[in-house]
Amino acid sequence: MSPKRILAAAVLAPFLVATPAFAQAPAPAANPMDNVPDKMPFDIPYGAPVSLDQAHAMISAAVAEAKKRDWKLNVAVVDSGGNLVAFARMDGAQLASISISEHKARTAAKYRRETKAFENGIQQANLHYLLTLDDVIASRGGIPLVADGKLVGAIGCSGGTGSQDEVICKAGAAALK
């Protein structure tokens, strides 16, 4: 065999051997973002907006739970359109959290899901596009209010850690009648 043929065989051999392996390689994994669910996620129908009396009852329950734990928080309740119905700032609660509590409630109402879903999406699932959505706050402490299977509003708490805010929101939401 001539030196040229030996060189050509040496150069082409890996391609000839590897070709069947490439032909049988599985397709790359599909992008999870390309999954198409059968049903709409968070498809909660809208109901009549939460009343002022209901909002006050939820705020009272939230504030009572926060006082029991010696946490100073801001609590906001919005209607199903994200409009403020009632608000309370506990003595000593940080001022920056006034607007944050309302923002959390507004996000939970508008997107019909807990704000924790956005926090998890960004921090755990790397869904950075969530940061581009209007009026999103990716911090737990915003909880939708559902009565008789319908969204009537949301409650938002701020001033503590996200987990503290969430605990107080849940205590307030539990008072919805």
Q: What structural category characterises the helix and strand content?
A: alpha+beta
What name goes with the CATH superfamily of the largest domain? Answer: Haem-degrading domain
Uncertain regions spanning at least 5 consecutive residues: 7-22
Can you count the helices?
Answer: 5
* Topology as a string of helices (H) and strands (E): HHEEHHEEH
Beta-strand fraction estimate: 15-25%
Question: How does this structure look, described?
Answer:
A hairpin with a 4-residue loop joins strand 1 (74-79) and strand 2. The protein has helices spanning 3-24, 52-69, 97-111, 116-123, 162-173, and strands at 74-79, 84-89, 142-147, 150-158. The protein has a 4-stranded antiparallel β-sheet. It has 2 domains: 3-34, no CATH class; 52-173, 2-Layer Sandwich (Beta-Lactamase), CATH 3.30.450.150. It is 42% helix and 15% strand. The chain starts with a helix and ends with a helix. Helix 2 crosses helix 5. The radius of gyration is 26 Å and the shape is globular. It is of the alpha+beta class.
Identify the notable features of this structure and list them briefly.
177 residues, alpha+beta, Beta-Lactamase, 2 domains, 4-stranded antiparallel β-sheet, 4 strands, 42% helix
Mind sketching the topology for me?
Blueprint: H1 3-24, H2 52-69, E1 74-79, E2 84-89, H3 97-111, H4 116-123, E3 142-147, E4 150-158, H5 162-173
Antiparallel strand pairs: 1-2, 1-4, 3-4
Helix pairs in contact: 2-5
